[in-house]
């Protein structure tokens, strides 16, 4: 059964409590209509409901979430998937700044561009490897302080005079990997970042994630992977490990 | 008495919103209230306010002074001072209604006035400089009096409260302007007092600001050297004065003004072609004390347009949209979509990249345009 909720004029706490209450009663599928800026949708739910959002969800979509699946039929705002632990967030539009802020697991797919500081302090541990895929371009400070996980930037709708990624890319990076569909000018990279071609094992990882992304977004996988990607990773896993060690 | 800026520190974001009709068609304040209220979570009730342009067509050639007074004494003193230098066309209380959440209201007055010709002549100033001098004299010299706004055919309406309540308090649904900006305050360093709410205004320039200026100290000193007295101990104040200095007094083009306020980083300047490099190096050399550092997103409004500007590394949110003759700016996209169902274009400007939108020059500003709430299906 699909539960439809008209979110027009609903305060964010009331909307989120409503979703939680219905989920605890056993409802798995939600359709939220006329969402307008309500924050924290999908937060605080223990389980894996499917939530489809129509309208514009507010900041911190699925913040600290642990397994929710959210599809936004539109654009999202700032801090999508803040510190999320597991789940899938699919945005059929653009997103604001700090997408995947401190994310620990799960996937965020964005169809169009994303703002500044995508994947700031992204991390990973054993089998928990968060993945962020941006279909358009990404703003400055992409992967800032990145400690783990995978960021993929495709730049599919980028105009000829536009750049795929902004400046200060990977500043403070010390783990994880970024795959950029095209070249990144060396001046854009933080001093901790190394640029390279993709190895066979990189390609395997990339193709796995891209085939899923293309499937979800309805894109031609062959076309998307046909271009040469650049791999960005950290020179040193623990650049500050000796800082206090004398 | 209410504590003023600097006397207390309160821990805290803010909400900003701006709407313009490029053709100068006027629309009710309801639209901007609907927009700013979507971002309720960004404010904490310690300040809300609006700037509106085109609201006083019957007095369009007079300065419209909006004043707050703590006491009748302050009011008397200010009115005597005003009468000495200006011919007052009309003095009246600004209409308000009772709203339970808006308390401790000062005396709120407005005056439509023109500088006395002989006084203006004696001062050897133009009427804008004459008025700036008057504003600073009131704000610094008369205890308990505060000039809220001093432009022509425009006004600032602000209070301690949530912006949607402030809009109701001032009955802004009955006002019609072609440019509106709004602010919901969440003060980080200072208490909420009526004068400390945004927008901050000087002549026709108003500013709403989310963030804080770590360059406040050097900006304030630079402004002092140029004859501006910062009396409110609020960082945002300097934005209005810097804009006045660069745009009105130094007559710099508005895009250059923005590039002074939020200049490119040195490494970016070093990569520029020669001519461009010279320009930006000169700007930083000449106006080094007048650049703004720290996290900010601001909307600067004048009677001829709207400017949206972010700090260079974009530490605050800003979204812009267009639909037909309408232009929208806000901290959050939902605040735009709440009043504009299908914008033709929505984008997040890059840090330090100004969005400047001017009114079409040939238009009349006196056609009333009905705002019908757009509700998404």
Describe the structure.
The complex is a heterodimer of chains A (246) and B (377). Chain A has 246 residues and is of the alpha/beta class. Chain A folds into two domains: 89 residues, no CATH class; 146 residues, 3 Solenoid (Pectate Lyase C-like), CATH 2.160.20.60. Chain A is 15% helix and 26% strand. An eleven-stranded mixed β-sheet of chain A has the order 1-2-3-4-5-6-7-8-9-11-10, sandwiched between helices. The model of chain A has no long low-confidence stretch (mean pLDDT 95). By secondary structure, chain B is of the alpha+beta class. Chain B has a seven-stranded antiparallel β-sheet. A five-stranded antiparallel β-sheet of chain B has the order 11-12-13-14-18, with helices on one face. In chain B, strands 5-6-4-7 form a four-stranded antiparallel β-sheet. The longest helix of chain B has 15 residues. About 4% of the residues of chain B have low confidence. Chain B contains eleven helices and 19 strands.
CATH homologous superfamily classification of the largest domain in chain A: Glutamate synthase, alpha subunit, C-terminal domain
- Mean pLDDT of chain B, to the nearest integer, reads 91
CATH class group of the largest domain in chain A: Mainly Beta
Which CATH class of the domain at 60-148 in chain B applies here? Alpha Beta
Share in helix of chain A: 10-25%
Number of strands of chain A: 11
Question: What is the annotated CATH architecture of the domain at 60-148 in chain B?
Answer: 2-Layer Sandwich
Question: What structural class do you assign from the helix and strand content of chain A?
Answer: alpha/beta
Properties at a glance:
A: 246 residues, alpha/beta, Pectate Lyase C-like, 2 domains, 11-stranded mixed β-sheet, 26% strand, B: Alpha-Beta Plaits, 7-stranded antiparallel β-sheet
